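Purpose: get a first structural picture of the assembly so the mutagenesis plan has something to point at.
Setup: two entries, given in the order below. No constraints added.
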Amino acid sequence: MRILVVDDEESILVPLEFLLKKAGHEVALARTGAEALRLLEEGPFDLLVLDLMLPDLDGFAVLERLPQGRKPRVLVLTARGREADRAKALALGAEAFMAKPFGIQDLLAEVQRLSEGL
Amino acid sequence: MSPALLLTGLFLYLALLFLVALLGERRGRALVRSPWVYALSLAVYATAWTFFGSVGRAATQGASFLPVYLGPTLVLLLWPFLHGRLLELARAHRLTSWADYLFLRYGHAPLATLAAAFLVLGLLPYLALQLKAIAQAFLFLSGERAPMADVALITTLFLALFAILFGTRRLDPSERHEGLVLAVAFESSVKLFALLLVGLAALFFLGNPFLEVPKRPELWPLLLPPEGLPGYLDWVGLTLLSGLAFLFLPRQFHVSVVENVNPGHLPLAAWAFPLYLLLINLPVLPLALLGRIHFPQTNPDLFVLALAQEAGPALALLAFLGGVSAATAMVIVEALALSILISNHLLSPLLLRARALGSLLLWRRLSILAVMLLAYLYFRLAGEAYALVAMGLISFAAVAQLAPAALLGLYWKGATREGALAGLLGGILLWAYTLFLPALARSGWLPPVFLEGPHPLLRPEGLLGLRGLEATTHGFLASLLLNLGLVVGVSLFTKREAPVEGRTGEVGALAGLLSRVLGSEAEAAFLKEAQDLPGPQAAAKAEVLLAGALGPATARLLILSVTEKAPPEALLEEAARESKEVRAYARALEEARRELAQAYERLKALDQAKDEVLAAISHELKTPLTAVRALAEILEAHPDLPEAERRRFTGLLAKEAARLSRLVEEVLAYAKLQAGIPLRLQRLDLREPAQEALALVAPLARERGVLLEGRLPHEAVQALTDRDRVLQVLLNLLQNAIRHAHSRVILELTPSGREAFFYVQDDGPGVPEEKRPWLFEPFQSFAGGTGLGLYLARRLAEALGGRVFLEAGEGARFAFALPLEVDHADPGGG
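Result (structure tokens, whole complex):
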């Protein structure tokens, strides 16, 4: 599965990349919303792991601008555990929502669930 | 005595009068403001009829001349009740005559016009009498029989000129004429002085006449009191008549009310004027007796002159001039007063309707000239006839017809317009029937039926068969009673008219009207006073100004053109007060509502801020916590990680742990700031905390690949301040800069005056315009900071008496200004 991980924090990207690769996925990284959209244009991804707090375009903006056609499934990560954020993200097409801080097992289980639905 | 000498004397006297009047208009203005001048000007009451006629009357009828002076004396005793009120009214409404008052009191009615016309007609003979007195005296002294008219015509024209010059110089709404008043006061002094001197001289040269009286029985009746009821009635009637005349003669109203400069003059005038009357009457009886004794064949009205001639030509000339002064003063003031009546009540309304108002001054001057010429004409036509001789008291009786409407109007609220009109009309008709027409008939100008009446009960000089009363007393009492009865009776049966509706208008429009009618001076005066007045008051003020110059009827007509109906004043005030109260109440409510809303907003903001602090802190904690947990779990689950990978993970772990601890530091600092921990001041070199701050953020800068540069001065920068807080401010600013910088952060320290400036500059994108307002608000992070840094920096700096602000320029350049001495300790930062 091709996975794109979007987060502005190096300390999040590094462990996620390691874990997802370990789980046998192909992983690409993006630090900003713009970078993420550019990568999404270039090639199709099966899963988008998206942080909502980004320096330029935030996670919601990325969700709104997802390229038409083969859309990836979206797992949203956020430190803002607010219900409104979850609802908004789901409304914009996200399929799963994880509040920080999360355990790596939970994350991997969620990714697994999403990949099985493919 | 030669006519040339008399004429010279007359002209010299008149020239002197001019000079006095000029003095009054120029340097003598202060003199005119004296209460003595006011009291003397009231003596315009004493005319040639007093000067020559009193002696004549005393010589034929005894002491019956006295009531003519008792009346005014008694009326003046009432001044606190009457004149005070009158002056107040006149001042407020710029009244120039009783006709003005009638208009004011009874509203728009033919009443004032009728009164004005009647006064003019009723007083013409009285004016003629004065001209005759001058002519008669001139002829008597010059010893000629004709032409009697010439000197009278010259005098007439001269007095008209005088009245025009000093009475209509300008259109002054207050109608004050200082020169004229001073001239009148001067003339009053001259006539008193002349009569007293003639009396003394006659006594000196001809001896005490009272010693002669016992030998002459024909003189006895002159010294006896009046007999029987008719005699007493004559006295009372005459006293009342002269009292009313003193009040209602236009010239008396003019000098006592219009020309009054200060109501405070009244108390003095109230005794000084009666004293004047007493003094001028002292010589009357002796002169009358001496005349009867020494000149039994002479006209008694000429006794004064005849007796003065006995004492020599100089005294004769003085007596002549005394008579002239009495006559001219009366003529001048009466002509002026009548001209104001004519122009205000007869001419202006007509001219205004005909849209031919033109120059008011011109009309007034023409009125004076017309009045004078009519008086002259009357004198020429009537001559020696009874119609002229008896006219003094008949004019008095005419003037008295104003009394019921005016006095009841002042003191009785129930008097109505219809009542006043009925009374005045009835009084005038009965006056004409009982006094005026019989006088004409007696002169032979009307058939005798006007003397006898159509029926014995309707005999003009003895209505209802009355006999024994003097014709004047009878006619006066009858007409006054009818007048009074009609005013009261009709008023009781008619409804009070609604008060004249108020008008409201724009100050600008009113000023324009005043400027058109009265000139720019009046406009300026009006604007000065009325600028801030509400419409109705401004309209009233403009109307008063116009009324003074044009008369109330014309003023009202003019005002109607630029104003509109105002709601009734009482209602208006009520509405104003109510709406004012309502407005105040609404304002208070609105104020309370706003305060409540503000308090609510503040509370909500505080509450929200607390929530936000919690949310922000938890949010800021979650990212490093996530990383720490993930990294720790990875390390735990994969003990066999390659060394490079392992080192990378532990490096990240350390970094996130440091971030957590920094976060905790900031939250603690924030909590400390909120709790208001006091400052710990110490003397230090500011370079030292700067260096420490640079050292502390060096790892962060290194990690971010940012070059850190300190530009500190070579000399120490001594300051008395709280070291920890300065350090905290610098740390926060530096961390913020490093987070936003591309490659470089500079910390600069510059002492400047009593302050030290720290500058923290980065080469990042700078602060977007739209973010600036919230830059220093808590939890407004937009670049992965805690959101507390800048807020804390500013609050801490403020606590030290300094400030933190963003400077304009490339990248972001924050300045931290710190006073070298903390002069006010504010631990909480305000």
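The two ends of chain B are 108 Å apart (CA to CA).
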